[in-house]
Design a protein that fits this description.
The protein is mainly α and 236 residues long. 73% of the residues lie in helices and 0% in strands.
């Protein structure tokens, strides 16, 4: 009875953990898609460290969701092999996340540099390409930023007057608000650092939560359930 009660308790905690796994997985996938959209808009279509970042994030999220499914099946059926597989998968996720963290640290400057160069390249076409203008206006409006490094980047754009920035740079956007602007009426910070800060904050938040849940609680609960299953077999 004690073994059965302990198993039920561990299973309940594991189910709660698996729900958290699913939430983290969905969060990672959503962030990966968001990063992909941003980079696709502002970075050229070359295969670079920056362009691979969202693919890795989405892959980790999808794998985490698969792990949650395996763990759920193992807990429901009280299957020893599935729970061992679940524990192994958690270890693999740990290795992948450590590798991603190291790669992100190593390539952080390269990714930021790519983004900055591509953003500035897109800015050159702002006045001649309506599609590019729409994309940059959307990025500046949503992220409350202006230019790549800062608002002065627009002074170097051919055809753009020195006392003018796109209306999307304005704090309160109205038609023509970017003409004869004052610094107090526009967002002066650059989009590269603003977007990079958003990515760091959100990716680290979700990845950190997934890391803590997966390796502190996940491995403990899965090992406890495996032990309970083995104890049940020995009693029988």
């Amino acid at each position: 009875m004690a073994v059965e009660g302990g198993m039920k308790c561990v299973k309940f905690l594991l189910y709660v953990l698996l729900l958290a796994f699913c939430a983290c997985a969905v969060g990672l996938i959503a962030i990966g898609v968001a990063v992909q959209v941003v980079l696709k808009q502002a970075i050229t279509h070359e295969t670079t460290a920056g362009s691979l970042l969202p693919v890795v994030i989405i892959a980790v999220g999808a794998f985490l969701f698969l792990v949650a499914f395996v763990g759920c099946c193992g807990a429901c059926k009280e299957n020893y092999c599935l729970m061992i597989t679940f524990a192994i998968f958690l270890s693999l996720i740990m290795l992948v996340e450590v590798a991603v963290a190291i790669a992100g640290y190593v390539f952080r400057d390269q990714v930021k540099s790519e983004f900055s160069k591509s953003f500035q390249k897109q800015m050159q076409n702002y006045l001649t390409d309506n599609k590019t203008a729409t994309i940059l206006d959307k990025l500046q409006k949503e992220n409350k930023c202006c230019g790549a490094s800062n608002y002065t980047d627009w002074e170097r754009i051919p055809g753009m007057a020195k006392d003018r920035v796109p209306d999307s740079c304005c704090i309160n956007i109205t038609v023509g608000c970017g003409n004869d602007f004052k610094e107090s009426t526009i967002h002066t910070q650059g989009c590269v650092e603003t977007i990079a800060a958003w990515l760091r904050k959100n990716v680290l938040l979700v990845a950190g939560a997934a890391l803590g849940i997966a390796f502190v609680l996940g491995i403990i609960f899965s090992c406890c359930l495996v032990k309970s299953i083995r104890s049940g077999y020995e009693v029988m």
